[in-house]
User: Fold this.
Amino acid sequence: MNLALLSIIVIATFTLAYFIYGRFVARNYKLDDNVTTPACAVNDGVDYVPAKTPMLLAQHFSAIAAAGPIAGPILAGQFFGWVPTLLWIIIGAIFIGAVHDFSSLITSVRNKARSIAEIVKENMGRRAFILFMLFIWLSLNYVIIAFTDLTAGTFVGSQVVENETITGGGVATSSMLYLLLAVIMGLFLYKLKTPLLPATIIFVPLIFVVIWLGQKFPLGEPKFIAGNALKGWSVIILAYCFIASVVPLWSLLQPRGYLGGYLLYIVLLSAFIGLLFGGFQISNDAPTFTSFFPDMKGSPGPLFPMLFVTVACGACSGFHGIVCSGTTSKQIEKETDTKPIGYGGMLLEGIVAFTSLATVMIIVPKVGTNPEDVYRNGIGMFLTTLGVPLKWGTVFAALAFTTFIYDTLDVATRLGRYIFQELFGWYGNIARYGATVATLIIPFIFLMSAEERAWKTYWWLFGTSNQLLAALTLLGISVWLLKTGRNVLITLLPMLFVMAMTLWSLARYVVAMIEGKGNIVVGISSIILIILSALLVIEAGVVFLRHLKRPA
Assistant:
C-alpha cells in the first residue's frame, strides 16, 4: 500500500473529526467570547498574557509533542502490528485524548486558569487534592526514568550509514552544544535585549552547525558508573534536569523550548513531505497485525490492555492536562480559542504519532529494536526526499529526538519540584534545591539499579501512570460538569475506558510480582498507583452520590 494514500486518509479523518466531533464537544461547554478570560482579566505581563491563536497553538503544541508520541507508536507497531496501533491512535486521539485536552483547557479557563489539581480540591476536597498531587508527582518520576534512558541510548554506540559512521558520542556533542546555544540565546534575549527576530535568524541556523560539529568532535563514553556508559550518561542527564529545574526560566528553558519548536516543525514538515512525495510503500514485511497475545521476546503482554498503555502520548496523555491547566489556560484570549488549541493540538499530536509509526512501516525493524534507532533512521529516509544525505538526515533526527525529550525532562522535573514544595509547604532557595533532589532521587535509584535498558522495564509503567492520570483528570472534570449541569457522559465514558485499561495493566504487574515472574519495583509501584486511584475514585463517588441525592 502506498504510504502517501494512507497519510491522506489519516489527515482527512482528523480534519473531519475536528469539525464534527470537536464541534459537538465544544457545544457542551457553550463557549462564549463575551466572557472575559483570566488572561485578559489579569494580564499581568508575566504569567497571564493573552496570545493570538496561531502563536499559542505553536507554543502549546511544542510543549505537549515530545518523545511520547514517538517511542510509544514505534514500540506498539513492532509488538502488535501497525493496523491496531494506527486504529488506537486515531480513535484514541479523537474521542479520548482531544476531549481530555480540550476539557482540561476550558475547565481551567472557566475556573480562573487554575490547575486541574486545584479544581479537584474545590470540587472534591483537600484530601482528594493531596491524593491527586501525589499521583502526579509519582507519574512525573516515571516520565523522567523512561525518557532519561531513551536520551542516554542515543549517546552511545555507533551506526554505519552509506559507508559513513554516525557516532553516539557525536550526537552527544551536538546535544550539549545545542543546550549551550540555548543558554547563549537566552543571554542575548534577556540581558542584551536582542529582538526576537534577529535572534531567531542568528541562532536557528546554528542548530545545523552544531549537528556538523558533533560528528567532527564526538564525546567519549562516560564509564564512571561501573564501566557502563549508558548509566554514566543517565547521571549527566539527571544533572541537567537538576540545573534546568532551579535556574531562571529565561536562562535555559524558554530559549531551549523556542529552538526546540523549530526542530519540531522542521521534522514534521520534512516527514510530511516524505510521506506524501517520497514514493514510500508500506513494506510487505511490516506486520499489519501480530496477535492478541504476542509472545515475542520483550512483549509487554496481550493487546488488551497493553496496546492502550504502550501508546500513551499520541492517543491520550495525562501530562497534557497539566500543560493545559498550568500555562496554556493563562494565555487564552477568548473562549473559542480553546477548541483549536485544546482539541486541535491533540489531533496534531496524533499526526506526530502516525509519522512515528510510519517509520516502522518502511524500515521493519527487528522486534525489540530501540525506538530512538527506528525513529532517526526513518526520519533520515524521509529527509532524503528533500535532497538531504541520509547520514546527515539521520544525525538531525537523532538530535531532534533528544531535543523533544529535553522538552519533557526539564518541564517534568520542574513540575515535580513545584508539587513537592506545595505538598510539604517547603519554600525558599534551599527548598528549591531540596525538592528537586527529592524529585530526582527515585529516577536515579531506578536507573542505576536497572539490569537492562531502563525504558524496557519502565516504559509501560510510565504509559500506564500517564494514561491513569488522564483518567483521573477526566474524573475530576466529570465532577465539575455534574455540578454545573452539563453533559457528563462526554468525559465520563472516555474516563471509564481509560481507567479500565490502566487498572487492568497495573493488576497484571502486581500478579506477575506475586507469581515471581515480574519486576518487584514495578509491582510495588503498581500497588501504590492502584491505591491512590481507588481512593480518588471513592472521593469522586461520594461527591456524585451527594449530588444525586440533592432535591431537584
